[in-house]
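Morning, I've got a small favour to ask if you have a moment. I owe you a coffee for this, so here goes:
>
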Amino acid sequence: MARETKKHDKKQDKKKQRKSAAAVAAPPPEKLGSKTYEQELRRLHVELVKLQQWVVHEGLKVCIVFEGRDGAGKGGTIKAITERVSPRVFRVVALPAPTDREKTQMYIQRYVPHFPAAGEVVIFDRSWYNRAGVERVMGFCTDEEAKWFLNVVPQVEFAMTKSGILVLKYWLEVSPEEQERRLRSRVDDGRKIWKLSPMDLKSYDRWDDYTRVRDEMFRATDTEWAPWYVARSEDKKRVRLNVISHILAQVPYKELDVDPVKLPKRKIGEYQAADHPFKYIPEAY
């Protein structure tokens, strides 16, 4: 009877795994049109401003983590979130490779100073989860170091939430075909070539390795207090709107009453401007 129960449980686990994989890999709907996108983005930006005012008013602390493969759309999504809010409230942290000194520190140490204080939303464009992903795949840390990280990080995030920080973790999921299309576009577009780093090229043929470490990361760190949210990013416009909508739903906020703004009267003409030979730039457009 016990053996039959174990077999049944294994079958159920496999079914759940297949269902989960299918959900992540589900075909995206038709691409969103630019007009609809701009209308919805404008509406969501208004709500983000309301959220910003509430965060400052209530002294909330929000930490948002973005992870995903190269070309998944993290940068564009973050830009869509922050383009209409104050950089003094919404801070973006994108740390470079660690210095020689930082390599000798406790791993999480260089991230802690960037955690939000009251009235701040901090967005990590890649985060401490580098250790569970790129560092592990590319051999910058040992398997033992990565497994130790996966054991410890849920406790760190639990401590963050107990200190009043709301932790939101997003994984942007993209198909291999769409990732390849985006990476190739970086080669051919002079505006994007800076996005294609030597590390991107080295990791390009490691799709299965990244899938494996992603799955291990989810199993170890998808907790009740700091869960992972997966956003399908085949359509850049859709994922930006979906993520912003989700953030607005996760951070409780109210619209604050504000006094109506009225421009004051001003006096012009009491001072005569100097007759200076200003050097105007050429008006090529």
